[in-house]
Design goal:
- It is a single chain.
- By secondary structure, the protein is mainly alpha-helical.
- It has ten helices and two strands.
- The chain has a two-stranded parallel sheet with strand order 1-2.
- The longest helix is centred in the middle third of the chain and has 25 residues.
Length: 205
Amino acid sequence: MLLGTGVLGSPLEYFHAPHAKKWMASLGVEDFPTMLRRLYQRRTSPSGWFGVKAHWPQFAPIARNEALLRFVNIDRYIEIRRRDRIAQAISAVIAQQTQAWISFHTSSDCAPRYDFTAIRTAVEAFENQIGKWHAFFDGQGISPFVVEYEDLISDPQAVVDQIVAEFGIDCVGIPRQKWVPQRQASDLNARWQDRYHKDLTALPA
């Protein structure tokens, strides 16, 4: 959706190691900094903004390396939070099992199977990653622009307009979104959530 505005770069997972290797091969370079320089040249919008999407495990090596952190020179952070962490974990487990991470991905033929342990592990992993992000923000004196996932699902265009305005870009002339990824949750997610809560309550004290 940010790509669709034409003013905030093309925020993909450039920091994800397997993706970075593919980018390096595609660009004919052998190191991460050179890859980023090439991408900066190709994917910076006329507004001057270049975007990256990153989960904590992808960003952690950069956060721990002061020289690399200075090199990537991130000016602004957008933090997407989801209030319902259990629902987030269930979505993640289903995506892992089906390999359909985005609505336009073709899922595998394997039907998702309820797995209490996998969901609980995912909840704990998300909590841990959120804690790492907040520790990083606090340590760097960063105040990210916060987007609530539930608000994004409710009115995607309004959230994008807020982001564009937050970045100091005139919203006039910014194209309205003709297409956005669709929410993937179904009644299966709801059934799993009910079952998870029952299983969680049944655990010994």
